[in-house]
Amino acid sequence: CGHVFHLHCLVAMYNNGNKDGSLQCPTCKTIYGVKTGTQPPGKMEYHIIPHALPGHSDCKTIRIIYNIPPGVQGPEHPNPGKSFTARGFPRHCYLPDSEKGRKVLKLLLVAWDRRLIFAVGTSSTTGESDTVIWNEIHHKTEFGSNLTGHGYPDINYLDNVLAELAAQGITEESLAQEKD
């Protein structure tokens, strides 16, 4: 990226980061290395359902199902050795089965493999600590409407989630890296 930092500042950034082998420029957010998260173990599945989402009447729907069970926090979590809850699982999320929707799905699969979709932390909804929470990559969890703001139609969603994925270091180049 071209930004210059003192060696001691770089060492401090690394030591205060998640020590996953990546470093992110604090100025422009460029990620060096492969960023990984602290998502607990679980399962991600997807399939096509023969119904259209509001605003996407020309295609079917991709349903993603995430399932993470409760467990014990590891050394990468806020309170190692303490149990964590996993409320609201399995979680169902929806994408249009369009070219851009399939691209988002492929990138979400990379984000899942890199443990970036969920984290253990404090829920902004309930205030509960030591629970599985979303981790800065928004998902649409409402199928037939947009009453809560987590559904369709949302003409900017696919572009917004692509930007959120890119901010986590997940881009089309990531797809090529995953194949290597």
TrEMBL record:
Catalytic activity: S-ubiquitinyl-[E2 ubiquitin-conjugating enzyme]-L-cysteine + [acceptor protein]-L-lysine = [E2 ubiquitin-conjugating enzyme]-L-cysteine + N(6)-ubiquitinyl-[acceptor protein]-L-lysine
GO CC terms of this entry: cytoplasm
Primary localization: cytoplasm
Pfam families, A to Z: DTC
RING-type domain sequence ranges: 1-29
Key words of the record: Cytoplasm, Metal-binding, Transferase, Zinc, Zinc-finger
Domain of life, per lineage: Eukaryota
GO biological process: one example: protein ubiquitination
InterPro entries: Deltex_C, Deltex_C_sf, Deltex_fam, Znf_RING, Znf_RING/FYVE/PHD
Protein's UniProt keywords contain Protein biosynthesis: no
Single annotated GO MF: ubiquitin protein ligase activity
Subcellular locations according to the entry: Cytoplasm
EC numbers: 2.3.2.27
Keyword RNA-binding attached: no
Pathways involved: Protein modification; protein ubiquitination
Family assignment from sequence similarity: Belongs to the Deltex family.
Protein name as annotated: E3 ubiquitin-protein ligase
